[in-house]
Amino acid sequence: MFVLDRIEEETAVIEWNGQTIMLPSALLPLGAKEGDLLEIFLKIDHEGTRRRRERIEEKAKRLWE
């Protein structure tokens, strides 16, 4: 369970399993306040990752031309 511990200026301090996670407060849902429980989901963007790797490989290739 993720708990919004506090908001410090532009940083959200979140507690999770005894650890502290700091995120930009702009990522919080509207109306989030101290003590709220947060659901956080992470998902890999496979297509975006593939495109990013292709761009990096293309730039690296041009360096050696």
Distinct helical segment count: 1
Widest sheet: strand ordering: 3-2-1-4
Largest sheet entry: 4 strands, antiparallel
* Mean of residue pLDDT values: 96
- The helix/strand class is alpha+beta
The shape, in one word, is elongated
Helix fraction, binned, reads 25-40%
How many β-strand runs?
4
Distance between the termini: 51 Å
Give the low-pLDDT segments.
none
Instruction: Estimate nothing, just give the exact number of structural domains.
Output: 1
Q: What percentage of amino acids are in beta strands?
A: 25-35%
Spell the H/E element sequence.
EEEEH
Rg to the nearest angstrom? Answer: 18 Å
Name the descriptors.
65 residues; four-stranded antiparallel beta sheet; alpha+beta; 1 helix
Question: In words, what does this structure look like?
Answer:
This protein has 65 residues and is an alpha+beta fold. The chain has one domain (2-63). Helices cover 28% and strands 32% of the residues. The protein contains 1 helix and 4 strands; from the N terminus they run E-E-E-E-H. It has one helix at 46-63, and strands at residues 2-8, 11-16, 19-24, 37-38. A 4-stranded antiparallel beta sheet has the order 3-2-1-4, with no helix packed on it. It starts with a strand and ends with a helix. The mean pLDDT is 96. Pfam families: DUF3006. This is DUF3006 domain-containing protein.
